[in-house]
Each structure stands twice: as C-alpha cells, then as structure tokens.
C-alpha cells in the first residue's frame, strides 16, 4: 500500500500543526517526538496557518533534517534566536521514525557508529550532541549478514574477523590484498581525523579555530605516518579507487566489496568517493575494539535528542510551516514567505536544509547568476528508493536473526544498478520496544538505485501505479524471505507498506525523490555553504562534505560556526574539550 493519510487508533497527534517547540514549553517535546506519530499522518498539502509567536528570528532554518537540526542546535547553543520551519507534522526529514499499530519504523538510515565517541576524533553528530548536552542510548553489535553471489556469511567488523571470511569465501589472494589495503590506509586515518569537523567554519576564522588550534595534532599524525604515509596524505582528496590502483589491488572480491562499502556510505562507487570518507569509515569499522551502534527507540531518537537540544537553549521549531518562497530584498535574503502568505523575517541569515534543486525553486530566478542556476540544474542526481516496511510475528522467523542484512544479486551489474542491492534492517532484534511483544519490525530498501523515470507522471491511484509497485517491490520481498528463513510468510504480515520514488518525493519533498547529488570525486566537488545571495546559506547533503549522516551533521555545524564570531566558536570548542 502507498504511505497514505489514515488515522490510527491510539495515536496522539498534535492539535496544531504550527505548535512551536521552545524553552517556554518544555512539555511539548513528547507530543512531537518523531517516535510518537505515524509517518502516514504527515501532511502533504502545505498548511495555511501562521507560525505562532514573533514572526522573526536571527536565523531561519528551512527544513528539519539532521543537517538543519544540527545547525539550529548549535546556533541556539551560541545564544542566537533560531527558528526552524518544517513543512511536515514531524521533525527529522529522512531520519524520522513513524508508528503504525504499535510498530515503530525507521524511515531512513539505520546503520550507525560513533554515537558514544567523544573528543577531537569523534563522529560529527556525536560532537554536536555533546555540545548540546545530549546523548543517545545505544545497543552495540559488530556484525551483519551478507548474501552475495559467492556465499552467505555473518560479516564482523574489526581488524581480523573479515580476514577469516575472505579466506573461507574468497581466496588467499583476497586476504593478502585486504591486509595490504588496511596497512596502507589505517595510518592515513590520523590525518583524515586530525581536524574535528566542529572546528571548521566557512571564513578565514578557520585559521584560528582549526589550522592553528590543531597544528600540533596534524604534525604528530604526519610524523606517525612516516614518509610514505605523509606522501600519501594528499590522496585523501582524490577518489579512493586511486589508492587501490596504486596498491595494485586487483582481486575481484576486494574491488566489489569496497565498491559496496563506498556505495552504502555515499551513493557512489570507489571511483567516485573521496578517499577521506572511506578512510574515516575504515577507521571506525576495522580498528581494534570498534563496534556498530543502533539507537534504542530507533533513528527517531536522534531527532528527539537534537530537538531537545534546540529547545533547551531557546530555539524554536514550527511544524507544518511550509516555506513557499525565499524573499530577497536589496540583494539580500531577508526572510521567507509561507504557504498562506505569512512573512517570517530573518535578521541575520537564512539556512536552507533543502536539496540544491528544491532550494533553487524557492528563489527568484531574476536575482540569481545564470552560472549558479546552470550549475544546480546540471548537477547529476543519485536515483531514488523503493521501501518495504513490515510488521510480523517473531515466531515466523529464524531464531538467530540479526539486525542487518545486505543482499547483492549480481556483482557484474554493479552495486549501483537498479534492483541489484537490497538492505534490510530488523531493529527490534536489538530494541524490542520498537514492536509489540513477540513481534518484529523490518525496513528493507534499495539504496538510491530506483530510477525516477519509471514512475514520473504516474497517478498514485491508478492500476498502472499499483501494478508497478508490486513488480518493483518483488526484489525486496525475495531478499526479505531469504534473510528471514523459510517459515516467514509475507501474507501473515500485520503491517505491509511499500514506498516508491513518488512516495519519497511526496513525503520528503525531495526533487525527483533523489538520494542526493551524484558528484564524483576527482570530477567535481560538493558546493560550499554560501550562495550568490548574501545572507543565504545551505547545509545538508547538497553541500560539503556530502551524503551520509556524519557528513550532513558536519555541514550543519560548519554553517552554524560561520555565523558566529571566532571567539564564540573557540569558546564552544573549549567547553566540549576538543
């Protein structure tokens, strides 16, 4: 079924779509928790009510994805008056959770690590949460099930466990090449992680907050790497495939596996991802003592923590507040116009957490340079998603069920081919409270590989649309049946939801339902955070560092830092010990 707009018994919805979460109303948070309502309840018709409270703020943030919330949280922490305008009834964008019949579903990312890390080398999201005085209780684990053409096996992270998998399911040559790869890139992680993302800003103040402040640690990392490692450091800004080529890694299994990791991380293969991103991931997944983490209460717990942080420091979030236009006066972005006509003034800046294409659609074209318009329109896009959300009886599945499963049907087609890779998450394995007693909750999806062109222009109520949904979701059903075991029966599921690129476009307001920009490392760069319009900034997956939870958290932090003084920024770094 399409993710529609039904009302569900027992679910409490906000009485006003425009209620503002602020310090003056501490009891509002539970009412608007991204775990407390249903994704299917989100309003897809822009509301017309006005934003309560004063119709202005120092900074107005458009959209409440992780990037926008990180930006708003830090701005509130910096004592700026910040207002987040969210079109839907729930905060969180692609990372929110929704509930149906007692099943709490993740709508987006579910593979996480680094929430418990602290200090200069911590995950950017963990650094933001630390600055806000928030934490996320997590369950830890170290493995996922892999279903590939060669074999089915439980893959464990860490420096040695994967070597056993390679020896059993690949070849001795693959083992040697993997060792060679780790020996070459793990030393580079010191350089890749020497500058904390929270230290970066978009002006010359970065010399003080990042370059000078962390010069000793940078120098130490280069010394520890030795001449060969230091010589290789510039490769961090090049495609990761170049590092593999320089090491003469040719084993098909290793090349395919690294392509899969790169695609899961950033939506491109190893020839399109920055080496710095991959090195950072390897440092988190293949060093001694590393673990994966899943937030108890689902991915919505991340959103709840960020909302609490914003609220704690006096920031406001107005839900059901659809921005129709960004207003440009005297050459500067001065505010936004909501659906219904209300004008919200931004005294210092506007930050758009929408995609580059959706942000462009909010701007008056006659105020923009043609070069900017052309760049946005010609930036390649990742494809969209198919989603499958299920609620079912735990007795109908294998007893040793793990949380994550990755299915690759054919290496030859490439991990970026449509209908070829399926990711499955069963978070109730680690967090049973996400499902009713004795039940499981499951989210399966094709990771940014579903062509929007197949769906464009279809009427969601038509027989043609329903037929295509059934056809294109079958690859996910088969992957789920493979992962859950022969006793699983799709007909016995208590909840069955199929989402398409049109669902993705409609509910998340993403241009063509896209995963984000498909910018290849070495061929292009993600845009910075400023725009040709003074006082208008952007954060999220259309900006540097790119796609993925750590990247969008970093982008939000960079924008927030850029809007305050170097002194305020430095004081925050001191306060959180980085």
Automatic annotation (TrEMBL):
Biological process (GO) annotations? carotenoid metabolic process
Q: Where are the transmembrane segments?
A: none
> Which Gene Ontology terms cover its molecular function?
oxidoreductase activity
What lineage, starting at the top, does this entry show? Eukaryota, Viridiplantae, Streptophyta, Embryophyta, Tracheophyta
Pfam families hit by this protein: Amino_oxidase
**Classification via SUPFAM superfamilies:** FAD/NAD(P)-binding domain
* Highest taxon of source: Eukaryota
Q: What is this protein called?
A: Amine oxidase domain-containing protein
Q: Which residues form the Amine oxidase domain?
A: 66-561
Task: Give the matching InterPro entries.
Answer: Amino_oxidase, CrtISO-like, FAD/NAD-bd_sf
């Amino acid at each position: 079924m399409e993710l529609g707009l039904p009302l569900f018994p027992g679910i409490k919805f906000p009485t006003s779509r425009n209620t503002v979460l602020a310090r003056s109303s501490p009891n509002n948070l539970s009412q608007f928790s991204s775990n407390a309502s249903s994704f299917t309840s989100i309003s897809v018709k822009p509301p017309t009510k006005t934003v309560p409270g004063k119709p202005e703020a120092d900074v107005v943030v458009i959209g409440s994805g992780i990037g926008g919330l990180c930006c708003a949280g830090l701005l509130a922490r910096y004592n700026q008056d910040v207002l987040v305008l969210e079109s839907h009834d729930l905060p969180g964008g692609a990372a929110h959770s929704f509930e149906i019949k007692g099943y709490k579903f993740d709508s987006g990312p579910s593979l996480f690590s680094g929430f418990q890390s602290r200090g200069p080398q911590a995950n950017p999201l963990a650094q933001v949460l630390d600055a806000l005085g928030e934490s996320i209780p997590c369950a830890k684990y170290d493995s996922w099930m892999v279903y590939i053409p060669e074999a089915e096996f439980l893959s464990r992270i860490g420096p040695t466990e994967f070597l056993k998998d390679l020896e059993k399911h690949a070849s001795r040559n693959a083992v040697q090449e993997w060792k060679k790869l780790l020996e070459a890139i793990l030393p580079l992680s010191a350089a890749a992680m020497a500058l904390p993302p929270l230290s970066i800003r978009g002006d010359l103040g970065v010399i003080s907050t990042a370059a000078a402040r962390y010069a000793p640690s940078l120098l130490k990392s280069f010394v520890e790497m030795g001449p060969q490692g230091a010589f290789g450091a510039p490769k961090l800004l090049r495609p990761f495939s170049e590092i593999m080529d320089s090491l003469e890694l040719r084993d098909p299994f290793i090349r395919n596996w690294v392509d899969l990791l790169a695609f899961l991380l950033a939506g491109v293969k190893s020839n399109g991802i920055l080496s710095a991103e991959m090195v950072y991931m390897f440092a988190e997944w293949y060093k001694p003592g590393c673990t994966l983490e899943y937030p108890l209460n689902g991915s919505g717990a991340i959103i709840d923590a960020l909302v609490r942080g914003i609220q704690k420091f006096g920031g406001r979030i107005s839900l059901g507040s659809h921005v129709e236009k960004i207003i440009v006066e005297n050459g500067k972005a001065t505010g936004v116009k909501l659906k219904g006509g209300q004008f919200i003034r931004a005294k210092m800046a506007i930050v758009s957490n929408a995609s580059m294409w959706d942000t462009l659609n909010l701007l008056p074209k006659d105020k923009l340079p043609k070069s900017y318009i052309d760049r946005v329109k010609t930036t390649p896009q990742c494809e969209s998603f198919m989603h499958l959300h299920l609620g079912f009886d735990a007795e109908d599945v294998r007893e040793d069920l793990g949380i994550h499963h990755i299915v690759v049907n054919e290496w030859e087609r490439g991990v970026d081919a449509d209908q070829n890779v399926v990711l499955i998450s069963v978070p109730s394995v680690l967090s049973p409270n996400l499902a009713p007693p004795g039940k499981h909750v499951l989210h399966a999806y094709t990771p940014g590989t579903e062509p929007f062109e197949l769906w464009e222009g279809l009427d969601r109520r038509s027989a043609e649309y329903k037929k295509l949904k059934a056809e294109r979701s079958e690859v996910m059903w088969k992957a789920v049946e493979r992962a859950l075991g022969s006793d699983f029966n799709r007909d016995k599921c208590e909840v069955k939801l199929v989402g398409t690129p049109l669902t993705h476009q409609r509910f998340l307001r993403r241009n063509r339902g896209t995963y984000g920009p498909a910018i290849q490392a070495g061929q292009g760069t993600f845009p910075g955070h400023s725009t040709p319009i003074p006082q208008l900034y952007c954060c999220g997956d259309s900006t540097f560092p790119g796609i993925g939870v750590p990247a969008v958290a970093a982008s939000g932090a960079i924008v927030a830092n850029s809007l305050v003084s170097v002194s305020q920024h430095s004081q925050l770094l001191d306060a959180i010990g980085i």
